[in-house]
Design a protein that fits this description.
Elements (H helix, E strand, L loop, with lengths): L1 H26 L15 E11 L2 E11 L3 E4 L5 H7 L3 H11 L4 E9 L5 E8 L2 E7 L2 E11 L3 E4 L4 E13 L2 E2 L6 E10 L2
Antiparallel strand pairs: 1-2, 1-11, 2-3, 3-4, 4-5, 5-8, 6-7, 7-9, 8-9, 9-10, 9-11
InterPro entries: DUF4840 (IPR032293)
Keywords: Membrane, Transmembrane, Transmembrane helix
Pfam families: DUF4840 (PF16128)
Length: 193
């Protein structure tokens, strides 16, 4: 009988504490997200890039720059693209070395949300043109890039998020088939200045 009374008291105390915890959470003020301006997005960024093609997934850190209406990569990662054009791994590495750093620029338009605490970006990627050297021959490669969703610059932590994909590759006028799109996901990019 004593154990039953103790169990009932503990249950009542636990129930009351849960109820008070829930009410205290409901009464807390929401976190105020600081307002941003369209110009706040401009600057240099460092972000995590997750590249996905089918079951293959790679991650790396990449830097890029955002200006008024464009996003520019000074060293765009093209390894996955070159691997689709050149099948021999030794020749892939030789081609990447010969190509050097690949610059890529994407245009965008931006809109400030009604609360002025985040910016929505609509990307208009250009076709990426590559000259891939293989066995003394240059393979002219055109990569069609498409946005997968809108990008967002958030005022709470001044971070940028966006996703786009290489949807089609054409080599010397012939489209690669079958080809599974290569997705470039930037889930969290931090403004470094």
């Amino acid at each position: 009988m004593k154990n039953l009374i103790v169990l009932k008291v503990i249950t009542v105390v636990l129930a009351v504490s849960i109820i008070f915890s829930l009410f205290s959470c409901m009464n807390e003020d929401r976190i105020d997200v600081p307002p941003v301006k369209l110009e706040d997005i401009n600057g240099n960024y460092r972000g995590r890039l997750i590249t996905v093609q089918g079951d293959l997934r790679n991650e790396k850190v990449i830097d890029f720059k955002v200006k008024k209406d464009s996003l520019t990569f000074q060293e765009f990662p093209v390894k996955e693209i070159v691997e689709k054009v050149v099948s021999d791994p030794v020749k892939v590495q030789a081609a990447l070395t010969a190509m050097g750093k690949i610059k890529y620029k994407m245009n965008y338009t931006s809109v400030l949300n009604a609360d002025k605490n985040w910016v929505e970006l609509t990307f208009a990627p250009k076709t990426l043109e590559l000259q891939i050297p293989v066995d003394g021959v240059i393979k002219k490669t055109l990569v069609t890039m498409e946005p997968k969703q809108k990008g967002y610059f958030v005022g709470l932590d001044y971070t940028l998020r966006f996703v786009f994909a290489a949807e089609k590759i054409t080599v010397n006028g012939t489209e690669l088939t079958p080809f599974e799109p290569i997705t470039y996901n930037f889930p969290y990019c931090v403004k470094i200045n």
